[in-house]
């Protein structure tokens, strides 16, 4: 613990874990001015920039690995960000865009704090499925802001929507619909005046531009705030007038791909551990995105004929309308036209280790789970999930299969993109 005197205008950069207590004067952090007796927290491995509004004394409690350094004049962007948003009316939907590791989460906290200080009811939506700060990885998550924060991770998701994957490249049309759904929920159910939406860092290719522009057209934000390094956001915001472009902080820590993977895996464990084994009757709680038991199981003779045509042994097969789902003794996922039917071949035990979302009747997440096995003869799934989900099983209306396979320690071992093709298989 130490007491530090800060002269008016002094700017410090803190990497947590740390606690800052204002003993005298006033100190600014993340859109909020803290006065004598007030305090705020810097989370572990997170950075926060603070500024003395007047001559001040602060008590600093630095945890293991915490860092504190005084910055040079003009080095940080704290004044630019504050001046840009200080006088804005922040009602409506505010969409934050930018590449990875430019401070979008910090900006979301700042805008949320500012809106709260204006007397608005504020909701935060974290739509970064890979590095979600509010809820589990693979989700869009929502929370209401009722006190000032320094980091989004200080909030807990009140609602989440399972997006199945940790990146949106293959699923962005569904992401647009679900982000819209989250925003409408915040506005209409929570009666939020301000909805701040933090987005993922997928920006730099044509499909990413198409996604972000479709999202803008769908949710119709009152303000688009971009953190721009060079000119990478111009293709996204071209033609829109309600745009504020801000510079990135100079010292945001860039996470490696391995760092991001570790963060996600810790997230899976946090929301599933300690796991309980749960048997789910699929007649009562079906699989949302794979209608295996909604049709008719094909008999042995037809299975033999189908196996001969496909050239692989067929263990089970289900006819659902003009489509046949066949479980085969083969590692390949195949789609083939047979007679008047589209046959979707799936490897036996394809479900083992799949991350799943257990959803309620409104499509919101009750909890995550990991599929252990589907017992087709009993029409039952056995999965690992949290004890909280077990208690809330009555709320679960369906199970959505994810596109990620985990091992018993919740480590990501495979992305199962083929399942997405089965979900949305084209008519051949």
Automatic annotation (TrEMBL):
Gene3D superfamilies (alphabetical): P-loop containing nucleotide triphosphate hydrolases (3.40.50.300)
UniProt keyword annotations, A-Z: ATP-binding, Kinase, Nucleotide-binding, Transferase
E.C. numbers: 2.7.1.78
Spans traversing the lipid bilayer: none
PANTHER family in UniProt: CLEAVAGE/POLYADENYLATION FACTOR IA SUBUNIT CLP1P (PTHR12755), POLYNUCLEOTIDE 5'-HYDROXYL-KINASE NOL9 (PTHR12755:SF3)
Function statement: Polynucleotide kinase that can phosphorylate the 5'-hydroxyl groups of both single-stranded RNA (ssRNA) and single-stranded DNA (ssDNA). Exhibits a strong preference for ssRNA.
Name of protein: polynucleotide 5'-hydroxyl-kinase
Annotated source species: Pyrobaculum calidifontis (strain DSM 21063 / JCM 11548 / VA1)
